[in-house]
Write a structure and sequence with these properties.
It contains five helices and no strands. It is an all-alpha fold. Helix 4 packs antiparallel against helix 5 (92-127). The relative contact order is 0.10.
């Protein structure tokens, strides 16, 4: 049980390991990494949601989930409005894919920023 917990914790701490493992598996199956990079991002996004939540909650405290869900809903609403303004009859699956990949980008930036903030806070805490 401890080994499973350690592996799961490591994957949550470093969510891009999931991406690398997926790309390696696809490479072994004969598919070029450039053709599956979008799918790798799609698979990594749920892990990023959990990771950003955990890091945000560690740094900020209670109520972290409300902010993450709020930003996700805001991104979805803005995506729908922009797509509706651009195209009168849009395809929902295409919109969902674009929104999901936008989540990946936003969560990647959030992950990097939160990790830097957490490290800086721990260094300052250690020095005082």
């Amino acid at each position: 049980m401890g080994v499973i917990t350690t592996i799961f914790g490591g994957l949550l701490l470093f969510p891009y390991v999931v991406t690398l493992i997926f790309l390696i598996v696809m490479r072994k199956r004969g598919r070029a990494p450039s053709s599956v990079i979008g799918l790798a991002a799609d698979i990594t996004t749920p892990v990023l949601f959990i990771t950003v939540y955990i890091i945000f909650r560690t740094i900020i405290g209670e109520g972290a989930g409300v902010y993450i869900v709020g930003v996700a809903l805001l991104i979805a609403i803005v995506s729908v409005v922009l797509e509706r303004m651009k195209v009168k009859e849009f395809q929902i699956t295409r919109l969902l894919r674009k929104t999901w990949r936008l989540y990946f980008l936003v969560l990647t930036v959030s992950y990097i920023l939160l990790m830097l903030i957490g490290i800086i806070m721990k260094v300052i805490e250690y020095m005082t």
